[in-house]
Write a structure and sequence with these properties.
It contains 11 helices and 12 strands. By secondary structure, the chain is of the alpha/beta class. It folds into 2 domains: 134 residues, Response regulator (Rossmann fold); 150 residues, 3-Layer(aba) Sandwich (Rossmann fold). Bound molecules: beta-D-galactofuranose. The site of beta-D-galactofuranose has 14 residues, from α2 and β9.
């Protein structure tokens, strides 16, 4: 039976059961769903938390989640999506490592009537019908929250900033950079003097920060802005090895709110982080289940909040998060 007919039948059955007060869960008789998840990799603590939480969310909903780790390579994600289509999965989740080059493979999924949901990053496409919905933060807002905090923290003193960017070519990196730059444009004394990709990893973040310290001079850096906490944790190590006192001599602000940045804050080594919800799989699964039940498409963006966290709550946040991530 054609997938569209199946969907319509399931939706009608769901509505019928709901009207008979049977409500909730999958329409009776529907086999357990299988979702293929093309995951970027395990480059950061946030990413591994997203994967772990997605597995838990699928188990809790009786959904089979098949996860493919692309080792941060788009060609591996494209291969994984093709395999999922060949297997005839019920839906595909995609965390797109970069923003372009997805139209052809997503069209193959669409032609097979397999809905695609984007997780945590967006794609650039002229055909938004190629994906059902996306779950992500407003990445420019994340950068703006970070920039606004830094402007408030430094006041009128001259503040040369070094920036650790995430993966080159991803939409979120361009957005986090733009949001931050627009926020600090309000303060002529706050200027980015060096910017480079640390690839969202601790090791590369440390290496790039070592280069910044050599290039600019350890006493000429007022603040570090990192597009994720993992690169900041690497940068903190580099600053300590250069005899600097991160969190004191050099202000730090980054994004994700993973447990280890709260540990660094509690130790006085970091100053601020902007939270990114890693439980995106659960939101995507609920949107998928609702769509299958009603046949009504969700909005194109299910946006997660971008809350600023500071050292005053760091110890409590670390205690709360350390077993969740
Ligand atoms: C953001 C997500 C980023 C995280 C990083 O939505 O794609 O990728 O901020 C992760 O930690 O590597």
């Amino acid at each position: 039976m054609n997938r569209r007919v199946k969907l319509a039948a399931a939706a009608a059955l769901g509505l019928m059961l709901a009207s008979c007060g049977e409500g909730g869960g999958k329409p009776a008789g529907e086999a357990a769903l299988t979702v293929g998840f093309s995951q970027i990799g395990s480059e950061s603590g946030w990413r591994t938390a997203e994967t772990r939480m997605a597995q838990k969310a699928a188990e809790a909903r009786g959904v089979t989640l098949k996860i493919d780790d692309a080792q941060q390579r788009q060609e591996n994600q494209i291969k994984a999506i093709r395999n999922f289509v060949a297997q005839g999965v019920d839906a595909i989740f995609l965390a797109p490592v970069v923003s372009t080059g997805w139209d052809d493979v997503l069209r193959e999924a669409k032609d097979a009537d397999i809905p695609v949901i984007l997780l945590d990053r967006q794609i650039q496409t002229r055909e938004p019908e190629l994906f059902l919905t996306s779950v992500s933060a407003d990445n420019a807002k994340e950068g703006a929250v970070a920039g606004d905090w830094l402007v408030g923290a430094v006041g009128t003193k001259a503040c040369p900033v070094v920036e650790l960017q995430g993966t080159v070519g991803s939409t979120l990196v361009a957005d986090r950079k733009r949001g931050f730059e627009q926020a600090i444009a309000k303060a002529p004394n706050v200027k980015i003097v060096r910017t480079q990709s640390g690839e969202f990893t601790r090791a590369k973040g440390k290496e790039v920060m070592e280069g910044f310290i050599k290039a600019v001079g350890p006493r000429n850096i007022c603040a570090v802005y990192a597009h994720n906490d993992d690169m900041m944790i690497g940068a903190i190590q580099a600053m300590k090895e250069a005899g600097l006192d991160p969190g004191q001599d050099v202000l730090t602000v980054s994004i994700d709110a993973v447990p280890d940045i709260f540990k660094a804050m509690a130790d006085g080594d970091a100053n601020a982080t902007v939270e990114l919800d890693p439980d995106m799989g659960a939101k995507a699964l609920d949107a998928l289940l609702a769509y299958r039940k009603t046949g009504q498409a969700p909005p194109k963006l299910i946006q997660t909040p971008s809350t600023l966290f500071l050292p005053d709550t760091a110890a409590a946040e670390y205690a709360r998060r350390k077993d969740l991530y």
